[in-house]
UniProtKB/TrEMBL annotation:
InterPro entries: Acyl/Acetyltrans_Enzymes, Acyl_CoA_acyltransferase, GNAT_dom. It comes from Nippostrongylus brasiliensis. This is N-acetyltransferase domain-containing protein. Residues 1-150 form the N-acetyltransferase domain. Pfam families: Acetyltransf_1. CDD domains: NAT_SF. PROSITE patterns: GNAT. One of its GO terms (molecular function) is acyltransferase activity, transferring groups other than amino-acyl groups. It comes from the Eukaryota.
Length: 892
């Protein structure tokens, strides 16, 4: 179909979700109740492949699944009837299966007439059977006991917390966030039964399912200690539903091999209640990893580099670009780690960071024009006695062509260092890599299989460090050539009380016996007047002297005095933690240029450590002129700091990188402190308008918390952080450092102090200008919230905006209340307001109606539809201001 478009993601507010919801209800899929249809688009675990028309965006079909606990559960696979039988379903199904993590168990539920199809495709293993019983509410009420239970909406905070812990204990999963969203839905109801000691003994919930007119309700979940308690806790829910709809029908689902099935199925069968069934099917998770239960062999092939390049050339994909990992920006590197995690189903971020920091390791990614990653591959050098080999692993890609395309880019890069290299590729049976094995075929210059079928072996966890098997492991490593020909002896140390007893000589000798004789040995030795270790090493095993390293200790105060006169005013110094992405990349490039080595990944790892501080130096043209780092060294109580590395164009530049100013940090200065006047002046100099009006600047010193830095020399204001704390939220209002004191670490120091003062259980929030967003997201506030909202009264809306408001209310409430709301807002006694985001999308609306005697000035705020409490309060505030004006006018 030329008019077909397939996408891998749609936003929760996309109209496709409404069309999908309508189709599910038309199909009569009652197990997916209204809470499922409402929450699925918004859950972080939801994944989708969606087919729609190009011309008008009309929904055609979708596969929707959720990924959690190493399971990919396919909840929906359906197409609009007129598009069935055209191959669209197979296309989106295959695309969905390919996107699921390879080590996840894929599961779904199928009605009996679809079972054979699913078993013959990707989910051959049959699981539990789900039984569905449908009955009139009065029938269920007749067997439900009457005991004192409590609706979830009536629970105290402490009781709700107890319910939350009960549900997590029953399910053995933390479902707190999901259940909170579930209970917040306006159409769900829940009930709790407490035992004599006021502990939760049972919990149940009910939710409408299918079309609103069907009056069908699904009873789920249901947790209890006994059948009696189960029927007791559901009684108030059934009574409530019966009072709303006399023809209401209740649906109960139970899975085979559960206690619910054991108790409920015989009971419902004895009452002649109709039953429907669907069956779970899944794919063996081991097979998706290339390791089925019978233990798959690993096939390793060697192929000459030139042959491999020629072979992969034709698979190059012109719509993608290849980029070397060593050239990636920090954001691109993080995106690569996320992609590897999504594809493999495992968080290998730390391992991959270490992997790409190794010397000689090369990596590449495959990206489309929009910068989205479609593949990752790596090549690791393996030096043997006869040749240089490159092991191609890992390789993550969406299909065989993608894998070959990215491998080709790596091979071309390797060829620059010599065309005689050998590529080594290992693949498993029944894995995607098996296609690559067949492609290499006759071009292989060596193939061998490592299998486990005929090997009698045992697996042991955490063998002791002195186990003899370590010797075999080391020898195997050396035999394989998994080193680069250099042994660097980093540490040789004995406790003082055991020196002179020949222990040192023995472990030194043992170490030398383990090192291959063909390897170059290197170390650094201490030289002093008492015991020159340098002469000792030169006389024995290290006759060749290399570069000298001189280490000096100096008090920080003395070093500051040395540095001060040499600080160059034409340079600007800035902490590495405060650099923009572009500036950080420039700093890495500068270090690579100065050292003649690519140290990008190493420096990224260094500056990621909490105990490392760095500073960069730029001239008036923003050109990088120096880079330095300082880290703690030695025992903590010794307060030693090591300055390293230090790269600079000259001595003055190096010293400029270490300039300082003496200052002190004060907590919560008094509202009448003169520093507030300087603070206000600094705010005005920056031109801050939003949230910096006169009333805010006057009230914040009185109502808020603050951390302020001032100069020890003259008491001058240097910088400050101000925030307010309310209802578990710490809102950071201002974070400012005078321009001339930026880059000296003052900002980081007061920010850190402020965070230490904020209660640990509080959520920290702030607003940021666009050019600082990346900085805050990469530090202490990674979650981006809502952008500024604008409010508008309903009577000021355009016709299109009013229709959008009606659609929004239908989406949020799950009911079509258009006619009711049109009548509501036509009344003279009502006033409504709507909140729009910067994209003109509605994020909430509310209405206020006068009620009671006119002179009493009583107003009812209802309905209120909003995506969060903040949006709700924003739109309500708009109405309250209007009410206040009205009351003041009436009183006057």
């Amino acid at each position: 179909m030329e008019n077909l478009e397939i996408v891998d993601h749609v936003e929760p507010d996309d109209r496709a979700w409404l069309e999908w919801k309508t189709l599910v209800e038309d199909e009569g899929w009652t197990s997916d109740d209204l809470s499922v249809l409402t929450l699925t688009p918004k859950l972080p675990s939801t994944r989708t492949v969606l087919a729609r028309r190009k011309d008008d965006g009309k929904f055609i079909g979708t596969v929707i699944w959720n990924e959690y606990d190493e399971v990919a559960f396919i909840g929906f696979y359906l197409l609009v009837p007129e598009y069935r039988g055209k191959g669209i379903g197979s296309t989106i199904w295959r695309r969905a299966i390919d996107r699921m993590p390879k080590n996840y168990t894929i599961a779904l539920r199928a009605v009996p007439d679809m079972a054979a199809r699913y078993r013959s495709m990707d989910t051959p293993v049959q699981g539990s059977v789900q039984h569905m019983y449908k009955m009139h509410w009065t029938k269920l009420l007749s067997i439900a006991e009457s005991k004192a239970s409590k609706l979830v909406s009536d629970l105290t905070d402490a009781e709700y917390q107890q319910l939350d812990e009960f549900c997590n204990w029953v399910t053995k999963r933390n479902r707190s966030d999901f259940l909170r969203k579930f209970h917040d839905l306006p159409f769900t109801m829940g009930a709790v039964l407490f035992d004599r000691s006021q502990k939760v003994g049972a919990f149940a919930a009910i939710c409408p399912t299918s079309h609103e007119s069907s009056h069908l309700f699904k009873l789920a979940p249901l947790y209890s200690w006994s059948l009696g308690e189960a029927f007791a806790v559901i009684r108030p829910l059934i009574e409530k539903i019966g009072s709303l709809h006399d023809d209401a029908q209740i649906l109960i689902h139970t899975l085979s091999e559960t206690i619910g099935a054991h108790l409920l199925i015989p009971l419902f069968n004895s009452l002649d209640i109709p039953i429907k069934q669907c069956v779970e099917y899944m794919i063996d998770r081991y097979k998706t990893m290339g390791f089925p239960v019978e233990a798959q062999p690993v096939v390793t092939q060697k192929i000459r580099l030139a042959d491999f390049i020629e072979m992969t050339k034709s698979s190059s994909l012109p719509q993608f670009d290849a980029k070397l990992v060593s050239s990636l920006k920090p954001t691109e590197f993080e995106a690569m780690l996320t992609y590897a995690k999504d594809v493999s189903g495992r968080n290998t971020s730390h391992l991959l960071r270490l992997h790409f920091d190794l010397p000689g390791v090369k990596g590449a990614i495959l990206v489309d024009k929009a910068g989205k990653i479609h593949g990752v591959a790596s090549a690791t050098p393996v030096r043997t006695r006869n040749d240089i080999q490159y092991k191609i692993a890992p390789v993550y890609a969406e299909d065989n062509n993608g894998a070959l395309s990215i491998i080709h880019s790596l091979l071309v890069e390797i060829q620059k260092e010599g065309s005689e290299a050998i590529a080594v590729v290992s693949t498993w049976n029944d894995s995607a890599g098996e296609q690559l094995r067949q492609l290499i075929g006759e071009k292989s210059i060596g193939t061998w299989t490592l299998g486990m079928k005929d090997v009698d072996y045992e697996i042991v966890d955490n063998i002791a460090p002195d186990d003899a098997i370590w010797e075999e492991w080391k020898q195997t490593m050396f035999d394989e050539g998994w080193c680069n020909g250099l042994v660097y002896i980093a540490y040789y140390i004995l406790r003082k009380e055991y020196r002179g007893l020949e222990i040192g000589s023995l472990i030194w000798k043992r170490a030398f016996e383990l090192i291959p004789s063909t390897y170059t040995l290197a170390l650094r030795a201490v030289r002093n007047s008492v015991d020159s270790m340098l002469s000792r090493y030169k006389a024995k095993d290290f006759p060749v002297e290399g570069q000298h390293v001189v280490t000096k200790r100096i008090p920080v105060a003395d070093l500051i005095e040395i540095v001060k006169p040499r600080v160059q005013s034409m340079f600007n110094s800035k902490l590495v933690s405060e650099l923009s992405m572009k500036e950080f990349e420039a700093a890495l490039s500068y270090a690579n240029e100065v050292t003649g080595q690519d140290r990008s990944h190493l420096l990224r790892a260094v500056f990621d450590m909490d105990f490392v501080k760095g500073a960069a130096l730029t001239d008036e043209t923003s050109k990088m002129r120096g880079l330095a780092a300082i880290t703690t060294a030695g025992p903590r109580e010794g307060r030693l700091y090591k300055i390293s590395p230090l790269y600079a164009d000259g001595l003055d530049e190096a010293l400029s990188n270490m300039r300082d100013v003496e200052y002190e940090i004060l907590n919560n200065i008094s509202p009448n402190d003169p520093l507030w006047i300087e603070w206000k002046g600094a705010i005005r100099e920056e031109g801050w308008v939003n949230g910096a009006d006169d009333s805010a600047l006057q009230l914040l010193p009185i109502l808020g918390k603050n951390v302020t830095a001032r100069s020890k020399a003259d008491g001058r204001f240097l910088g400050a952080v101000q925030w307010s704390e309310n209802d578990g939220l710490a809102c950071m209002a201002f974070y400012i450092v005078r321009a001339e004191y930026r880059g000296l670490g003052i900002g980081s120091a007061i920010w850190k102090r402020a965070l230490e003062l904020v209660p640990s259980e509080y959520t920290i929030g702030l607003r940021s200008v666009a050019n600082m967003v990346e900085h805050y997201k990469s530090t202490t506030t990674p979650v981006e919230g809502q952008r500024d909202l604008t409010t508008k009264f309903v009577n000021h809306l355009s016709a299109d905006e009013f229709e959008s408001m009606l659609s929004y209310s239908k989406e949020v409430s799950g009911k079509d209340r258009s006619r009711l709301l049109q009548l509501h807002f036509n009344l003279d006694c009502t006033k409504g307001a709507v909140a729009f985001d910067p994209n003109s999308l509605i994020r909430g609306f509310a209405s206020v109606t006068s009620t009671g005697p006119r002179e009493a000035h009583i107003y009812k705020i209802a309905p209120v539809y909003a995506e969060s409490i903040d949006v709700a309060l924003t739109v309500i505030h708009c109405l309250l201001v209007e009410i206040e004006k009205k009351v003041e006018f009436a009183n006057s």
